[in-house]
User: What shape does this take?
Amino acid sequence: MSSALNEISHDQKAAARLRRTTLFWFVVVGFLFLTLTLDGCFLRMYQSQFFPTLRAEWFYAVLTLHGVGMLAVWFAAGMAAVTYLLSNYLRPPLWASPAALGGTLLGFGLLFVATTRGLFGAGWHFLFPLPFYSQGTWPDWATGCFFASIVVFSTFWLIWSLALIIAILRRYSFRTSLGWHYLSGRKAPEIPPLVLITMVALVSAVTGFLELLALFFFYFLQWRVKDFVANPLLMKNLTFFYGHLLVLASMYLGVAIVYDQLPTFNNREWKTNKIIVIAWNSVLVMVLMGFFDQLYMDIVHPRMPQVMGQATAYFSAVPAAVISIFDGLLLVYGSRMRWTVGSTFMFLGLMGWAAGGVGAVIDSMMADNSVLHNTLWAPAHLHTFYLMGVVLMILGFAYDLGSRLSRLPESRMLKGLILTTFIAGGYGFVILGFWSGAHSVPRRYATYPEGLTHATTYARTAVAFIIVFIFGLVLFLWEIGRRYFRAIFT
Amino acid sequence: MTPQIKVFGLFVAINLAVFGVFVWVALSTRWPHEPDEGAVRRLRRWFFGVVTGTLLLALLLTLPRAPYPKHDRKPDRIVYAVGMQYSWSLSDQPINSPEQWREESYAPPVEIPAGSLVEFQVTSFDVNHGFGVYSPSGELLGDVRAMPGYFNCLRLRFTKPGTYRVLCLELCGMGHHRMWGEFDVVGGTSKPSAAKPVAKVKTSAGSGS
Assistant: This one.
């Protein structure tokens, strides 16, 4: 009896500790998201010629900070959320989330220094050999500092991912965690969708992090070994493979949260079945091949991977659309849904995933890729399924967590304002990106050349939409901040 | 209407349908009821068929339109293009060294007959660049990457006389947005058999910008 009570007490302490860590994670996420959104606004303002005397080096440095920073924030936020939610089914290690928080903050410190002090501006993808060809724009120490930030992020997240995989494997076997027993008709043991999808995301992420180590090994050889020249095509493959896996792993973490949390708003069930298992296992296979669409314009790349790139990009849409989005809609259809900011964000997140997916499938078409991919079309589809997809899914969870713990009621007016500004500002911003892409506006340009002056007008219009979005974000942070304050201090 | 605008129209049309479905589902929660399981199963099967069939059809229709050189068709002209931070150099002759690249930046313009099929053989002497060809009206006609140590080919047929620009479409450093080349297609008609026009090639290095 005493032992059982001790166990309960231990579990309660562990749950409280994990809850505190998760709340602290989302305070950090909120601060970083606002900062990086302001950076994004700065980028479109620079393109709108708001800062005519500021050197273009600043544009490219902030572009790098914004790109790497946003990927880092949302992967980490997704991991923090699933670590918390997994504790409903198994025992995730309590040290992993705080350690990753420390590592992530250290990584961000290095990233801020590299970009804002060193003006490192090779972009989130730091395509080889650009980091070594700064033309005097950034010093060598900035390159080192940037690489150190990526190594710190990746190392801590690799350990975090492995720790969660081990925790899952302590409860389920590898085959069971991926639901393979459902394929032979068995339904026991029951695998929550959260576990299945998190496992798919973690395996993808670990593959990406290990592959990143290979990329850095070649960078190291290039830096230290005389006469060694890394192959630019191989380096490009490694870079895009890693970037692609990290983006999609973040997306899957967001979807895992929605599978787990959306049913709590209408008391319906979203359980694993044979179709879901087939869908997510096929995603795991396709995600490892789907990055070749980044290399269509490298004609020297072997043709077969290019064709595979289009085929996998196309058919990875089937499990997403037919299973996850269809099931998500079915879950909500005709239900007694409790529409809060949290549940609405999760629902809207599914919509953003679908809308961005349409843009991505079009971009992955080899026939049109060469006139779309290096325009603002590609960042537009990325922002659609990121900003209006995974970000909303994770923010929905974060808001709901604060609401449940603080029990503060929602203000109807603020709720309406937050939703209106997020939708109007967010979709206005991304639609302008697609429109600009369709009008051949190149991406990653500090200012636009003669003959593309319409691009400046589009950038100015985008700034207006971003300001609307930021207004909504500040309101949202105020509302979530009140809840977290109450949850932590009372 | 450019192909990009048509694609944008398709994108908007599909997404209007997507948004419509989401709004309809959200509104359905005002009148709670349990969906008929048989109807759901039929709908899922139909949806799976439509999505998979559409993607398969699109794949079969678009793969042959991939912009890769067909070896059974020889180009009328070959133009060599080399990118370096932050300029393009284009020439009739292969450019083999950075010194030659600098000379070619100031060399007399390359002549490209309007209407002929031109193959650009594109590479870089330093970092990755993007070789994006823009029409006089500012429409992106084609794009290929310039990568050190490799030649990528881009085939285009210029039918309209005017000033064409080559912009760099891969982030290559702080001067990325200022990296360009330019040529004027003068005279000629839209048919390959037209009189030979002249294309004057200028670059951002050559013109001192």
Remarks:
- Helices of chain B lie at 3-28, 37-62, 98-106.
- Chain B has three helices and nine strands.
- Residues 52 and 58 of chain B are 10 Å apart (CA to CA).
- Residues 189-203, 205-209 of chain B have pLDDT under 50 and may be disordered.
